[in-house]
Predict the 3D structure of the following.
Amino acid sequence: MKHFLGTDEGLELKIVSRGMPPDGRGEVHFQCPVRQKLRPVQLLDAGKIKRIRGVAYTVRVSPNIANRLVEAAKGILLQYIPDVYIYTDQHKGKQAGKSPGFGLSLVAETMNGSFLAAESASNPPGSGKGPSIAEDVGKEAAMLLLEEVYRGGYVDSNNQGLACLFMALGQTDVSKILTGPLSPYTMSFLRHMKDFLQIMFKLEVQKKNDEEENLQLGTDKVILTCVGIGFTNLSKKVS
């Protein structure tokens, strides 16, 4: 089974086969055009969540497990927002790798085009954690996504470091982005960028006012600001 993700920017993602640890051997093809430089960004208003989409995937297990994942996750997410749709993706034979397993990937999209993602998967065979229950995995994925929504910002906690890297490598202009509380990984990543790129970010806490407190907009947000180093990509397209 193949899945395609196409955009106006020429990005293409093909999930040729899925695999689960420890012997998954999944295969993903990613293709994107060459960019000479990165533009500075001003991403300070993520907007409200408008819909949630997801994929429940299974490999070398009963296809009914995917439906159980969907039902468990939607039982929680529908209490938050009505526009929830989760696809099922079942792989068999060579496209399923050598290890059985299942999982659920969820993405919340905001009015202003930002995405917050979360994922949960079953325990790999031989991990010592015992077999996973589909309903527990589905509920865990839903709660992880709601935690990202509570944290808020333009990117989720897993992609904060990537956003900071793109800002640092951009043109010599000011870039700003709004995120939720910084994860431990992001804080360590900022220290590494100071050591390797000699760039420092300005961090400001955006506290909520009384009106926002009543709206229950989640935690206090962080505004990260930096001036890019003007990195230029010298690579050429592969014929």
User: Anything to note?
Assistant: Residues 157-227 form one domain. The longest strand covers residues 49-59. The radius of gyration is 20 Å.
